[in-house]
Backbone:
């Protein structure tokens, strides 16, 4: 959960970091097509002899060719019949599988663009939803769009809108808009709409009055809103109010309990010290008060009540992003890895801080606490399985930006955990493709986003990590491109030193406060 070195988009890279890849950096010798060349890409790209999976639930099309013209798919057909034009760049994908590019639906990018943005497309993630928007995210998006930065398509939240006192203090240097009443809530929605947010991010401490005002003003301005279900608001009300997605599974535990009314009254009594300057201390206090209520909710799970709620979510088109990865890392700490080949793409000083932070957050647990929390995590898997069976649309997101999660790579682990929850491989793949496409309202006419795999992910979802190449916004990243560009990120990470300015406290934990320790 430590913060990677921060580079403001209008400043030079922080000491010890390298600049993000530019169009010049990405332009290889003429013999190899550039993923983001300064010169125009060939007008036609032909991906031939592949098994094509147009959607997770469509029939696989063996030995097919995809023609991309100016970055967009213009034809698909059997390779024996669809012949590339003479001027096309032809890539033979015999034995490969082509699936839609993946979307990561819950991220927090707080670091140097050279270490963050490229990792997403290099790992097959071609679109992301940034859940705590800041001005530099919009600057990244402009650079990605112009071709001067390799990165995914960004959908960017507003700053967090929360009730006072927020779980977040101001020690992280991240904006939180505290709204105490309807008037302040409406003004905050107007403000973030003017500033260009793609959607409004709602949070845990909002009062019903403020929440309903946000929902009404967002509807008036035609801007979506998404985020946490506030502590004292029934989740069914969030669905019927038009909230596009609900993040994490904390509120879901409470909403499916036969003791929901009693537990929500207890939640209303939870207090945050507004004079506490530490975010870690604030949400640590909040969770110590909330944990017994989560345990009560787990013990009082009401399957009939849950099914009625899930039907409401499905009928209202409310998506749920379970973020199992971060739940797993904080609730199954005995299973935390001690090393990973993915960690080399983050600064060593950041990775080295994770165990101490996790110990500070979870080290006070008693054996009884640990056993309860493992039970709670197992119950979360049950909720995911039952939501899926009830037709609730799930989207894959990891809360990347917290510890033990590497941008891009972590989404593949989230897919594995969704499979563990009982989702069949096609349905898991849908959580990172067709479902987020609809949630984020990504334009169907956009340049092509494709992931080329060496093996069939419908047989084993873990094969999404077995990447051959990627088409990111119409630009082909060959195997050689990926090796070279990943090496560039690894080098930047190895050369990174802790930033001397704008540094977070040693115990800072960027990400969602809802995923603090119990």
Residues:
């Amino acid at each position: 959960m430590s913060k990677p070195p921060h580079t403001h988009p209008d400043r030079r890279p922080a000491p010890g970091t390298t600049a993000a890849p530019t169009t010049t950096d990405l332009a290889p010798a003429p013999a190899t097509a550039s993923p983001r060349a300064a010169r125009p890409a060939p007008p036609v790209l032909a991906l031939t002899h592949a098994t094509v999976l147009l959607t997770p639930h469509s029939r696989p099309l063996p030995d097919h060719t995809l023609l991309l013209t100016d970055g967009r798919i213009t034809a698909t057909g059997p390779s024996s019949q669809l012949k590339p034009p003479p001027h096309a760049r032809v890539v033979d994908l015999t034995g490969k599988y082509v699936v839609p590019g993946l979307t990561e639906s819950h991220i927090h990018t707080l670091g140097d663009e050279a270490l963050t943005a490229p990792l997403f497309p290099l790992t097959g993630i071609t679109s992301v939803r940034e859940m705590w928007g800041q001005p530099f995210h919009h600057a990244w998006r402009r650079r990605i769009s112009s071709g001067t930065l390799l990165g995914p398509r960004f959908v960017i939240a507003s700053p967090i809108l929360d009730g006072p006192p927020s779980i977040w203090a101001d020690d992280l240097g991240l904006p939180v808009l505290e709204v105490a009443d309807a008037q302040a809530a409406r003004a905050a929605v107007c403000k973030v709409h003017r500033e260009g947010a793609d959607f409004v991010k709602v949070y845990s401490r909002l009062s019903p009055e403020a929440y309903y005002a946000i929902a009404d003003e967002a509807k008036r301005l035609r801007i979506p809103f998404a985020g946490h279900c506030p502590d004292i608001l029934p989740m069914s009300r969030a669905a019927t109010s038009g909230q596009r997605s609900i993040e994490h599974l904390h509120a879901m535990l409470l909403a499916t309990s036969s003791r929901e009314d009693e537990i929500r009254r207890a939640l209303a009594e939870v207090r945050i010290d507004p004079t506490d300057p530490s975010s870690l201390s604030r949400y640590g206090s909040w969770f110590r008060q909330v944990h017994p209520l989560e345990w009560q909710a787990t013990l009082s799970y009401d399957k009939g009540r849950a099914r009625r709620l899930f039907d409401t979510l499905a009928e209202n088109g409310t998506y749920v992003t379970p973020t199992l990865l971060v739940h797993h890392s904080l609730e199954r700490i005995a299973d935390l890895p001690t090393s990973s080949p993915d960690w080399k793409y983050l600064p060593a000083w950041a990775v080295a801080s994770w165990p101490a932070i996790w110990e500070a957050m979870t080290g006070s647990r008693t054996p009884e606490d640990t056993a309860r929390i493992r039970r709670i995590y197992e119950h979360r898997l049950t909720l995911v399985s039952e939501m899926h069976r009830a037709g609730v649309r799930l989207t894959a997101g990891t809360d990347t930006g917290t510890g033990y999660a590497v941008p891009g790579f972590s989404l593949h682990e989230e897919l594995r955990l969704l499979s563990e929850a009982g989702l069949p491989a096609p349905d898991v793949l849908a959580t990172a493709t067709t479902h987020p496409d609809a949630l984020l309202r990504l334009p169907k006419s956009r340049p092509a986003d494709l992931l080329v795999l060496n093996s069939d992910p419908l047989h084993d979802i873990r094969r999404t990590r077995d990447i051959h190449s990627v088409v990111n916004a119409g630009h082909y990243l060959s195997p050689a491109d990926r090796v070279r560009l990943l090496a560039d990120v690894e080098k930047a990470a190895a050369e990174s030193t802790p930033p001397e300015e704008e540094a977070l406290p040693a115990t800072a934990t960027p990400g969602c406060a809802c995923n603090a320790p119990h």
About this structure: Residues 1-39, 501-518 have pLDDT under 50 and may be disordered. The two ends are 16 Å apart (CA to CA). The CA atoms of residues 235 and 252 lie 8 Å apart. The first strand starts at residue 44 and ends at 52.
